[in-house]
Amino acid sequence: MPESRTPAADAGSGGDADARSRFDVHRGVGRSTATNVIVQFATLATGFVVTPFILRRLGQEAFGLWALMGSLITYGVLFDLGISGAVVKYVAHHRARGEAGRARAVVATALRLYLGLGLLAACASAALAPFVPDIFNVDDAHRRVAVAATVVTGIGVAVAIPLSTPRAVLIGLQRFDLANGLTLAATVLANAGIVVVLVAGGGLLPLLAVGIVVTVVLQPVSVAVVRRVAPDIGYGWSGADRQLVRAILSFSSALSINQIASRLASRTDTIVIGIAQSAASVTPYALALRVGQLVLLLTSQFTKVLMPLAADINARDDRARLRNVLVASTRIALAIGAGVGVTAIVLGGAILAAWVGDRYSRYSTIVTIIAAGGIVSAASLAAANILLAIGRQRVLATLSLANGLANLLLSIVLVLSYGIVGAAIGTLAAESAFALVLLPYTARVVGVTIPELMRDAVARVLVPAAALFAVLELVTRVVDASSPVPLVAVAGAGLVFYALVYVVAAASETERAFYVRITSRTLRRLKVR
């Protein structure tokens, strides 16, 4: 994704062949991002449809427990210790160097490490379970369910950790299309299972068990896909190398700290609210959080492509291309985040009303604060992935942990003073400080000047974002968007307008040429059909 201001990117030192190579990289990133977005939209769409149904069937108290179990699952995944990220990095690195044997050994070693970690996760959940009702102020009617739900959640984590390896391998191979296809299948099956369970009269425990069943059922398919795509790497337990344990854990330990920090930043609020207030108080915050977090969910569908790509570039020691990737990817990530974030800020109340009812629309302030934090975070997502790819994971881990701890401390203090709104304010403050440190550091390491990064990545997005905000504000004064059809129409029209303004006023020449070229190819294919 080269930046047009760099001569090597603009002029194309290799002529037509170099231009084709750059287009292939753009197309690969675009295809991967597109499949990421499709899967994420499908996940969000099914979640938005199923969530009100779950809320009605379970009630506010049980739904609060459902949300808390979701937060505990994200913390349980920390038993992964960042090994999946190490698999992504080293599979991409060794594949770029033609070292299929080393990549195969990485996969086998990771599988063996995962077996012990999965057992540890199950034991930890069983030990924690008896204390959960008291920790989260669960009412008497749901205490036994809360204990059992924690155990089931731990079993789910124990199963999910080792069975996530095929997806990590596919991402390391930059086959996001296949990895996302598996994720989409899991999402569809899981949501279908949830509906069946609730219609049949099942409660919280069967809902949690659905995910376990789906993960196990899809595992043979996932392994078969990996073996077909990369027969030279394969997939299995044989070939593990004890010497690789140190290398994997050296990288994954820093990545694990990043994951802990991410959970502190994104999932601690619901736990703090549950402890400080009650499980029922988690429900309105969790609903508003889902809307506000659309910013990072959609932006990350682009930025997650960068780690294996940048690892490949770094393995080839192409510093100029890496600088171009940082500037261009930061601009695109911020553009995605700003588009989704501004839409959520203006339409937050309408989204809550259309989704779960008017009684929750008054929590739009939480959506606004979380979405604003998401826009700030979007600016740093690309930088974080590039730091991981070039081996600066320890610095990233330190900064991320500081961010997570700041978020936790601010949430505790502000929840006590301002309730659930205080939790959102704490997240915004911590994320802003993190971005202000991370972006300049990454620019210096890669060799990009701060003025260049601000001019070509940040400042360009301001005009399209301001235009979108103005248009949505004007439209919502005329149109009542608190029901699904007008909401989708207003949001969709606004985002299309935003995309056009961005391409015309903010995209680089290289980026704009790519959009034009890929659009032309798509239209030609449609005409042929």
In short:
This protein has 529 residues and is mainly α. Helices cover 84% and strands 0% of the residues.
Rg, nearest Å: 23 Å
Which regions have little confidence, pLDDT < 50, spanning 5+ residues? 1-25
* Overall helicity: over 70%
Report how far apart the termini are. 30 Å
The helix-and-strand class reads mainly alpha
- How many β-strands, per DSSP? 0
DSSP strand content:
under 5%
Q: What about the largest sheet?
A: none
- What is the average per-residue confidence, as pLDDT, rounded to a whole number? 81
Helix/strand order: HHHHHHHHHHHHHHHHHHHHHH
Principal-axis shape equals: globular
Q: What oligomerization state is this entry in? A: single chain
Overall tally of domains: 2
* DSSP helical segment count: 22
Characterization of the model:
It contains 22 helices and no strands. With 529 residues, it is mainly alpha-helical. It has 2 domains: 59-266, no CATH class; 279-504, no CATH class. Helix 4 packs across helix 11 (242-266), helix 16 packs parallel to helix 20 and helix 20 (450-476) packs antiparallel against helix 21. The two termini are 30 Å apart. Residues 1-25 have low confidence and may be disordered.
